[in-house]
């Protein structure tokens, strides 16, 4: 199951840049980047942290506010297998591609006005192993790479990272997760909680975690898509009611003898199958490309290239001690060796809501990959007390989405929808998401 973003990097040109960034020692300060004029107006550090036999590569952007007191965030991106650069350039980092220069030999970079690094220091991690520049010197480590193994490794990663960055030891610490990283974030957070309890050093000043468009429970997410499609006007009320009766609310694991249900699901698929499920209002690029006059030839070329590429990546997956080929989302991780050993992360959220930390969960209301319906359903299962009932929240006098807050003791869980956003919200509504984060991190209501 791939939770990679539909937005792709300009691979050829940026591979060259990434190789430049990748030629680092354990830590390197990057002061300039191709495509950006002059010195970077923020501190960017790249490097490796060794965890057992694995080398985790990271991009660290120091807060542009007060780095010695501002929050420190470890961000896990989705896929699994998508590089932390996705978060840095596409979501909450201080730089983005200038789309007006995409036809140039080298695309330009521009500063982002709503970067979360204005008020927080962020570690963008390449994880699990095999993602981005992260690698292992032992082939066995790729075989055992899994949800729980990755979370355990990243719990060790952050303590070792802090050992080399002791000036951030006292900063309030948060784990962030996006898309499939939303499943990993609470598992990583629990690793940190348990490590603190066990007296591991350095102690991590954990204050909370947040997840955006979080993959949490496959059954809930898949079964929510049909009610979501009806609610968004994508299927008729007649078809929806008929499918509810024939499938009895279970749309994922349908018995092959239930022909009425299968027929209804086929009709629903006809209505929704060609949508861009990451944002239902956006074009489905796989249908619009390549250009019509080169359609057959281009499609055949793409299919052949992808076939060769996937075989090449799989056969050379055990290359040890280096990263010979960089890709934004490594299919050899997503569809190959990675073990999906956590079917539902709800239990981790239940555990964490009993601890002394705060939580932010947000979704895009036009996301059909992980619908807001499924997220609201598992939040309800946590049996928390509503502290601030469902209401609109605003940015610049306009409704930015809807929110409600749950409370347990003095610590709270804030849930928010982001109006008009897809999967993931920070890619579509940067100003709104920045405002949401700024209020939450400073303990203000949305």
TrEMBL record:
Q: Which residues form the signal peptide?
A: 1-26
Q: List all membrane-crossing ranges.
A: none
Query: A Gene Ontology biological process annotation?
Result: proteolysis
Protein keywords: Signal
Q: Which SUPFAM superfamilies match?
A: alpha/beta-Hydrolases (SSF53474)
Query: What superkingdom does the record give?
Result: Eukaryota
For this chain, one GO molecular function annotation is: acyltransferase activity, transferring groups other than amino-acyl groups
Looking up Gene3D superfamilies in the UniProt record yields: 3.40.50.12670, alpha/beta hydrolase (3.40.50.1820)
Q: Which family does it belong to?
A: Belongs to the peptidase S10 family.
List the protein's name.
Serine carboxypeptidase-like 18 isoform X2
Organism, by scientific name, is Ziziphus jujuba (Chinese jujube)
Q: What is the lineage of its organism?
A: Eukaryota, Viridiplantae, Streptophyta, Embryophyta, Tracheophyta
């Amino acid at each position: 199951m791939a939770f990679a973003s539909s937005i792709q990097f300009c691979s050829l040109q940026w591979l060259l840049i990434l190789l430049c960034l990748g030629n680092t020692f354990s830590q390197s300060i990057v002061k300039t980047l191709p495509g950006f004029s002059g010195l970077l107006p923020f501190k960017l550090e790249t490097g490796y942290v060794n965890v057992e036999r694995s080398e985790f590569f990271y991009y660290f952007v120091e807060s542009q506010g007060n780095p010695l007191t501002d929050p420190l965030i470890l961000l896990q991106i989705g896929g699994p297998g998508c590089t932390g650069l996705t978060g840095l350039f596409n979501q909450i980092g201080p730089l983005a591609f200038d789309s007006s220069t995409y036809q140039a030999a080298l695309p330009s970079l521009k500063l982002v006005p709503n970067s979360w690094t204005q008020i927080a220091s962020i570690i963008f991690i390449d994880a699990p192993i095999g993602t981005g520049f992260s690698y292992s010197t032992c082939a066995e480590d790729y075989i055992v790479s899994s949800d729980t193994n990755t979370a355990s490794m990243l719990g060790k990663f952050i303590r070792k990272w802090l050992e080399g960055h002791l000036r951030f030891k006292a900063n309030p610490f948060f784990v962030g997760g996006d898309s499939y990283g939303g499943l990993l974030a609470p598992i990583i957070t629990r690793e940190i909680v348990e490590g603190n309890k066990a007296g591991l050093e350095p102690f991590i000043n954990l204050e909370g975690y947040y997840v955006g468009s979080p993959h949490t429970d496959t059954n809930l997410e898949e079964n929510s898509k049909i009610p979501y499609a009806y609610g968004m006007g994508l299927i008729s009320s007649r078809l929806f009611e008929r499918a509810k009766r024939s499938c009895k609310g279970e749309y994922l694991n349908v018995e092959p003898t239930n022909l009425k249900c299968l027929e209804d699901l086929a009709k629903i698929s006809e209505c929704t199958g060609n949508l861009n499920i990451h944002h239902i209002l956006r074009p489905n690029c796989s249908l619009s490309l390549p250009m019509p006059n080169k359609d057959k030839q281009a499609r055949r070329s793409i299919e052949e290239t992808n076939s060769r590429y996937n075989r090449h990546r799989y056969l050379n997956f055990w290359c040890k001690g280096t990263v010979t080929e960089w890709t934004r989302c490594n299919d050899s991780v997503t569809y190959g060796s990675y073990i999906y050993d956590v079917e539902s992360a709800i239990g981790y959220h239940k555990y964490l809501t009993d601890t002394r930390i705060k939580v932010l969960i947000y979704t895009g209301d036009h996301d059909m990959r992980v619908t807001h319906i499924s997220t609201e359903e598992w939040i309800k299962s946590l049996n928390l007390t509503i502290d601030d009932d469902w209401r609109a929240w605003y940015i610049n006098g306009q409704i930015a989405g809807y929110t409600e807050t749950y409370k347990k003791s003095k610590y709270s869980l804030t849930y928010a929808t982001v109006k008009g956003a897809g999967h993931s919200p920070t890619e579509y509504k940067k100003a709104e998401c920045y405002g949401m984060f700024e209020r939450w991190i400073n303990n203000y209501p949305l």
